[in-house]
Amino acid sequence: MRLKVVLEKSEEGGYTVYVPALPGCISEGDTLEEALANIREAIALYLEPLEEKLPENAELAEVEVRRSPPCPTSG
Q1: Residue 7: CB partners within 8 Å, gap ≥ 6?
Q2: Sheet holding 15-18, edge to edge
Q3: Confidence of residue 60 (pLDDT cuts 50, 70, 90)
Q4: Average per-residue pLDDT in the chain?
Q5: Burial of 65 (0-12, 13-18, 19+ CB in 10 A)
Q6: Is residue 26 over pLDDT 90?
Q7: SS3 49
Q8: Helices (H), 1-75
Q9: Pairing, β 26-29 against β 6-9
Q10: Is residue 70 over pLDDT 60?
Q11: Residue 13, Ramachandran bin (φ over 0: left; ψ between -120 and 50: alpha; else beta)
């Protein structure tokens, strides 16, 4: 899975990084490499399966989403 992340340089130094497609999935690091490693871990935790017991009338399913390539523009 590939996700776009936004890296923002902090005034205090280091980087803040978040995933627009995953609300609340945010991390930081002192270097770009550390910030990217930390957001990978945050994404993995964000996407972990539900640990809570589901209600009796509910079930868990998986779906795969693929984005279609953009339509060519006429020139």
Answers
A1: 15, 16, 17, 32, 35, 36
A2: 6-9, 15-18, 26-29
A3: confident
A4: 87
A5: exposed
A6: yes
A7: coil
A8: 32-46
A9: unpaired
A10: yes
A11: left
Length of the chain, in residues: 75
CA distance linking residue 38 with residue 46, whole number of Å: 12
> What does the alpha-carbon distance between residue 51 and residue 45 come to, in Å, rounded to a whole number?
11
Please enumerate in sequence order all residues whose Cβ is within 8 A of that of 38, keeping only pairs 6 or more positions apart, or say none. 17, 27, 28, 29
Q: Which residue has the higher pLDDT, 65 or 34?
A: 34
pLDDT > 70 in the chain, percent: 89
Q: What is the pLDDT of residue 52?
A: 67
